Amino acid sequence: MAIQHYNIRITGKVQGVGFRFSSMEAAYRIGVVGFVRNLNADQVYIEAEGSEAVIQRFMDWCRKGPLGSRVEKVEANEGAIQNFTSFDILPR
């Protein structure tokens, strides 16, 4: 099972709606490791690692987000494996 790493930038109404905490819960439930942090007023940045199937499930979640959010755009690019061991919420 090959591990993949994605850098994900999510734009829309993603701050003030529990997006970071909800993404951490989704990551734990799905089996993704990495981190999430706020960028500017309408963006969240996530680095996620897992198998291809796990990453796809997490990306599906990212396209919807939690209740109260409005995801307008999801940009994802493959990156170098960082060997994360958990999924954390980081400060800006």
What's the SSE blueprint?
Elements: E1 3-13, H1 19-30, E2 33-38, E3 43-51, H2 52-64, E4 70-78, E5 87-89
Parallel strand pairs: 2-5
Antiparallel strand pairs: 1-3, 1-4, 2-3
Helix pairs in contact: 1-2
Describe this entry's structure for a reader.
The chain is α+β, with helices and mostly antiparallel strands. It has one domain: Alpha-Beta Plaits. It has two helices and five strands; from the N terminus they run βαββαββ. It has helices spanning 19-30, 52-64; strands at 3-13, 33-38, 43-51, 70-78, 87-89. A five-stranded mixed β-sheet has the order 4-1-3-2-5, covered by helices on one side.
Apparent shape: globular
Number of helices: 2
Q: How many DSSP-defined strands?
A: 5
Q: Which regions contain 5 or more consecutive residues with pLDDT less than 50?
A: none
Strand arrangement across the biggest beta sheet: 4-1-3-2-5
Q: End-to-end distance, in Å?
A: 32 Å
Overall residue-averaged pLDDT value: 96
